[in-house]
Each structure stands twice: as structure tokens, then as C-alpha cells.
Amino acid sequence: MKRNFILILFLAICAVACSPKPESETYDGKLLTIAYVGEKPAYESSKISYKEVPVEGIQSAAEDLSADFDALFVMPGTFEKLSTDSYTPFFHGLSIPVAFVGSEKGHLPFITEGVTYQTGFDLGNGSHSTVYMNTGGAEKREDAWYFYLEDADGHPRSPDEVFSDMLRKIEEL
């Protein structure tokens, strides 16, 4: 009896350890082509194609980026440079979502003149990343969605879950 219990316990542990990632951690939507500035995002998926875009010359490339990519990911090593006033028109001119990955200050330092990442305030909302979209038009509407490393109940979430959620939002936009 004791051997059967140990065997069942062992099999249960193996089954849990060998099970695939929960669906919420894996992006399985349409193929997305993502431009990124800075270090390449760590999240990998057969549904994601990344292409690095150099910071130099990016200001004049908003139209091309908007035509060729589904989104732009701005990575932490570029926050200070890309948050200067000379890049503000670039972010307003994009017609694709921009994800500020790992930004505790959200999107505001990048779209607000007179504010840099260093001088901007921490949002204090605990977000890990922000997706920003300037929909333009007569409304001049701007939207932002925040993504967290904790769920609404305070349970920890993996960075892969956050990336998957961001990619689902980008696909929806």
C-alpha cells in the first residue's frame, strides 16, 4: 500500500513537472513582426519575428516602421536617449503600438515634452511594461495599457505571461 502511494505521488509530480506552460504564458495568435530598439526581447515564439532598429535615424522612420511592423518595442537601455524632446514627435507620429518594456515610468517620458526618463516620475502603479498607441485623427486620441508582474489577486506572473498579454493586446489593436 505504501509503495502504491509513493508510486502514485511520484507519477503525479512527474505529470505536473512535464506539463506544458499554461496557455496564458504562450502567445499563439497571428504572426507579428516586431521592431525593437535596444537589446532583443527575451520572449521567443514561432509567432513572433523581431527586427532590430538602430536609434540613429529612427526619428525620420516613423512612416516606414508603421508600414512594415506590427509594433515597436523600446527596451530599457534606450529609455534615457529616446525620452528626450527630439524623439517626442517620432512617438506621436507612429501609427503602430509602442511597448515600453520594463519602464516603471510608463510611456509619459517619451511623449511629453520637457520630461526625460531621468526627470519623469515613477507611475507607482507597479506596472512592468506599457503599450502606448496614438490613434491620431481629429480626436488626437492616445491610449495606454499597463501590464503587471502580479495578477489582480497579487499572485506573481512570469515575464513570459506579461509578454504574451502585451502581444495579444498588440494583435487586437
Automatic annotation (TrEMBL):
Q: Is this entry keyworded Signal? A: yes
What residue range is the signal peptide?
1-17
UniProt KW keywords: Signal
The protein's name is Lipoprotein
Q: List the lineage, top down.
A: Bacteria, Bacillati, Bacillota, Bacilli, Bacillales
